[in-house]
Specification:
The complex is a heterodimer of chains A (about 325) and B (about 375). By secondary structure, chain A is mostly helical. Chain A has helices at about 1-30, 35-40, 45-55, 60-75, 85-120, 125-140, 145-160, 170-210, 210-220, 225-255, 255-260, 270-275, 280-310. Helix content of chain B is about 35%, strand content about 20%. The chains are: A mainly alpha (about 325), B alpha/beta (about 375). The structure holds adenosine-5'-triphosphate, iron/sulfur cluster and magnesium ion.
Chain lengths: ~325, ~375
Amino acid sequence: MIGFIIRRLASMVLVLFAVSVLVFAIFNIIPGGDPAVRMAGKNPTDVQIEAIRKEWGFDKPVTTQYAKMIEKTFDGQLISYSNRENVLERIKEGLPRTLSLTFWSSLFMLVGGIALGMLSALRPNSFADRTINAIAVVGISLPVFWIGGLMSYYLGSKAGIIPAGGYVSISEGGVLDWFWHLLAPSLAISFLFIGIYSRVLRGDLLDALRADYVRTAEAKGLSKRRVVVRHALRNALIPMITLWGLDVAITLGGGAVLTETVFDLDGVGAYLADSTRSLDVPPVMAITLLGAIAVVVMNAIIDILYAYLDPRIRL
Amino acid sequence: MTAPTAPTPAGAPDAASDLLLDIDGLGVAFPSERGPIHAVRDVRLTLRRGEVLAVVGESGSGKSVTALTLLGLTRGRGTAITGKAEFDGIDLIGASDSQLRRIRGKRIAMVFQDPMSSLNPVLRIGHQIAEQIRAHEGVGKAEARKRTIDALTEVGIPRAAERVDAYPHEFSGGMRQRVMIAMALVCGPELLIADEPTTALDVTVQAQILDLILRLRDERGMSVMLVTHDLGVVAETADQVAVMYGGRIVEQAPCDELFADPRHPYSWGLIGSIPPLTGAKPEYLPTIAGTPPSPLALPAGCPFRARCPHEFEQCAEVPPLAETAGAPGHLDRCWLPIDEKRIRRAGADGRIGLLHDAEATTEESA
Ligand SMILES: Nc1ncnc2c1ncn2[C@@H]1O[C@H](COP(=O)(O)OP(=O)(O)OP(=O)(O)O)[C@@H](O)[C@H]1O
Ligand code: SF4
Ligand SMILES: [Mg+2]
């Protein structure tokens, strides 16, 4: 276990390094990337630009600039180029929103994926299976901003059944209102993944149901439910859980950019979208690193879960 | 060859209640895109309490399907199961799933061929055994665990109290098969169905596992249906032998009788293909020419017709599984008259053989 943690920490450092260099390099290379010019406003003089360069350290070698930015990120001193607000403070405001969205969407994905996958696998090629397959194909091919947009417009603005967008925290509106505002965006994210997971689980569960150990379980006289849940499902869930863990990490790290924007959630993902549009490197850097940490940590959690689900795997 | 050593169970003196398993006219057909697969046809088998019945035959002859059908494990969408299979008077074919569930693992237990894949890799073996006890008997966790440890000890697993919490991958193949046997026997079944229980194991381990099954049979008066490819195993263990071919029983006889006086040409081939344990090894082992029939396209008439060197006109009709006068309990499914059978099966060098038996074949092909 200690070896496992050390290996994971080492790989986290590597991943963070690679990701940050990449982000930094991209924003230094792309045209219009010079932040001093943008910050100087319309029709700046060379003197103004030069002054900004000095103030922000853009005249230093890139390696120094990079090192400074990383240092500030971990110090909590990172300042946005476009409005000079503290990036980490801003992320801290957005994080509960993104966390809430991640919580509900990952729950929907997991429950929906397992339920539909089981329904399909227990009656392969039945009407239910075919219907679920059709829904899954639709779910996989529909862009999330489209579903989200439709839901927000028709169910929200027009019909008024659900809020069209926005976020209400538990302390502001109580658990119900909090959930109610997150329902549509969480569902919008989940459609795609429920589609994928239900297909993955269907295949793995069908394989497991044909396995010798399931026949043994039946021959022992166990109830159908126990055979399916204890023996088949437990083995079949392992690949699906892996996918799920990564998808959760991505949503958590600001990956739900479109959903957060469409539903006006103003979380980390929306912040990432805004900052990218205005070529504001510091928030992009911080959020990308946050996402990378989420992926690496989630990966470790999945591996631990894996070892629990399958005792043949050693950490 | 072992004489039947099973003690007669107390309280079952008369012949009628002595009969534990009574199968007649059993047929199993699986659906497929190219029509029904007749895996088992018109199978007739009986098994008395305390006896070991060996079922032998080539791969694909329907042995496993017969065994699985007894437990309802071939049931499924589109599978046509016909005929009679009674266990202690209970109709296994007509029984509901929940009726069968109460019999499975409790009164009829099964051990499978491959102990590597037959145990769930992600559950502790103790859990897998205990859950069976708890499915059938209203006992608590502690009691189930205690009985699990006892069962593991009984089948010869050292340090059972520790090993009970191990996972299947922590055991060798032979030990896993012992675990499977412990699991099968933990609820004290009256019938143990062992489907090639030693095929996947080393030779020395094979003997241990067979000894274990026989010892437990002796101690408990349990009946055993032993499915196997291996006639050597049959000779050492069985009281009764059934030979299957192409989904049918082609011969059934007491073990000694079958080896001394095999009636069906397919049995001659089978018996000819085991190496003698003593004496000089023959230069070649007779094998049976040709391949078994496909259950999708079974030939009309005698199932063995396509490969039988003794085939003649009458074989275009399916021979009945019939008893020869003077030998009760010895049935076979071949049209040849008994005298003819005895003459033909004696090979040129006195061995029972089927192939290269040119003299016997020329006569009939005229
Ligand atoms: N579920 C199934 N669906 C379709 N065909 C099947 C099914 N199970 C068995 N069969 C077919 O039925 C025939 C008999 O199979 P069975 O497993 O009983 O043979 P076997 O005598 O046990 O052979 P082996 O010695 O290889 O175990 C085979 O041709 C097999 O392909
Ligand atoms: S019935 Fe005919 S084909 Fe079948 S085994 Fe006897 S002789 Fe051969
Ligand atoms: Mg078999």
